[in-house]
Amino acid sequence: MSSNSQALIVSDISQKTQDLIISQRFQRTSGLKSPILLLSGHEGEVYSIKFHPDGETLATASFDKKIFLWKVYGDCEQYATLKGHKNAVLEVCYSNDKKTLLSCSADQTVILWDLNKESKIRHVREHRSVVNAISSCLNDPTKFVSCSNDSTVKLWDSRKSKSTLTIKEPFAVTSVAVSHDGQQIFYGGIENVIKVFDIRKNDDVLYYLDGHNELISGLSVSPDGSLLASFSMDNTIKIWDINPFSSENQNYNENQNYENNENNNENDNENDNENEMNEEIDEDEDEDENQKIENQKNIHHLNESTRKMEIDENNKKDQIKEEIPKEQVESTENLPSRCVMQFPNIIHSLEYNLLKVGWSPDGEMVCAGSGDRFVYVLSVYSNNILYKLPGHYGCVNEVAFHPKEPIIGSCSTDRKIYLGELMRF
């Protein structure tokens, strides 16, 4: 039987039967109607994609000056179109109040949208050139920041018509993020360096994160607020420690935060148990010889199990190291100050789009698009590329994680949006 006739037979099977066949063949991990969904409708390149904090809807922004609102589940209906910008919409961002959407555009403006009414709340026009990026504050839904080719970074209060702070730079600023408490602003541009500004001091840059060799296109703060991810046109993604008391020369080795601490705690606990047993043997002078021998056996078994655990953990570490592709992972030994991880070979395109970077809700993965048309999902603590997903026919401008399920969304210059489920979160 030919492949065409086989396809014809499958097409005659009822939808319920097809769903049963798929569910038996693949273990589903999300509530999407299908493991992979293609959303189309934009008439120009799609630059930005973000999931709503409740995970039920998402927003996309495009060169066609429009913002589309989509439903994530069911048939992924495109239920609203937001019009108001006069040029390409470069990024969208949800406020944490879950009622407001923020957008920035090449028309030099920022718009606040009411999601319930699907209309504009405020249209601000302080920037004097293209507004490249926008970011909202997690713990204060009234605060957000924007950056522009006019060499400024602006802090906004959604309750006010004008910006509350303007940071002036000598060159264009292309990426921006804000700390969860709204007290620090991270931004970078064509100077190739990330600057950290404390709004409480309001006088000078607090410190610099220097390590990229080209324009910085995307910045994102981790869910716990301790790390910053940066994407640059030098084809690298770097992870920075932004804790206030971090050592300036602190570098993390592979899995240091998790495996080493856990192993040390386990070994300390077992050594404490061993010492307690020895003390009990010394104190109890009247204990008979058989009991002493039994206690010594227990101690011997405890030491043996401890050694076996250490050997197993070392074997696991060696196995992880062997699985990491040598051409895709760099050593952490010679990283810049505060840089704890680096992922090379995430290619930017000749289009020089401002490719973004994002975090998973658990803070263990980062995601990014690339000029090679792949979607990348990277493990922060194992320094490994977990997924390299094809499908797009153009530069992938942004990738976003769903806030509650193992789902990622991606958008591209090919005008298409993909939703897909991952095997794990």
TrEMBL record:
The WD repeat ranges on this chain: 39-72, 82-123, 124-166, 209-243
UniProt xrefs under SUPFAM superfamilies: WD40 repeat-like
CC terms in the record's Gene Ontology section: catalytic step 2 spliceosome
GO terms of biological process kind: mRNA processing; RNA splicing
One Gene Ontology term of the molecular function aspect: RNA binding
Entries under PROSITE patterns matching the protein: WD_REPEATS_1, WD_REPEATS_2, WD_REPEATS_REGION
SMART domains according to UniProt: WD40
InterPro entries associated with the record: U5_snRNP_Component, WD40/YVTN_repeat-like_dom_sf, WD40_PAC1, WD40_repeat_CS, WD40_repeat_dom_sf, WD40_rpt
Compositionally biased spans, kind Basic and acidic residues: 290-329
Region (Disordered): 248-331
Keyword line: mRNA processing, mRNA splicing, Repeat, Ribonucleoprotein, WD repeat
Composition bias type Acidic residues, residue spans: 265-289
Pfam families recorded: WD40
Low complexity composition bias: residue spans: 248-264
This protein's name: U5 small nuclear ribonucleoprotein 40 kDa protein
Organism: Anaeramoeba ignava
